[in-house]
Amino acid sequence: MLILAIVVLGLAAGWVADMIVNKRSRPDDWGRVLLLGLAGSFIGGLLLSLLFGDGLALRPSGLIGSIVGALLVTAVVSRRSRTT
After folding, report:
1. Which DSSP string corresponds to 22-81?
2. Could you give the maximum distance between any two Cα atoms of the chain, in Å?
């Protein structure tokens, strides 16, 4: 059940990040959105949860960190793909 929650949170974070960074409501590639969302969610959610002392529990700091991390990862990947 935890794995399913992680995947859904990663997909949601990636979708929000894709909407903000690429300014479109429907992404072209849901697989890319899921991978970037999971990567950003892991990075941002884990870092903010540990910084605020929440551990690995599902808390608001981890949720916010997930979206911020997904935004950063999506922005870096989008910028890199535009320049090449």
Report:
1. H--SS-S-HHHHHHHHHHHIIIIIHHHHHHTT-TTS--HHHHHHHHHHHHHHHHHHHHHH
2. 40
Q: Where are the domains of the chain?
A: 7-21+29-78
45: exposed, middle or buried (Cβ count in 10 Å: 0-12, 13-18, 19+): buried
In this predicted structure, the answer to whether residue 10 has a pLDDT above a threshold of 70 is yes
Q: How long is the chain?
A: 84
**Rounded distance, CA 27 to CA 15, Å?**
7
What is the pLDDT of the chain when averaged over all its residues? 79
Q: Rg of the Cα trace of the chain?
A: 13
More confident residue, 26 or 49: 26
So what's the pLDDT on residue 4?
A: 80
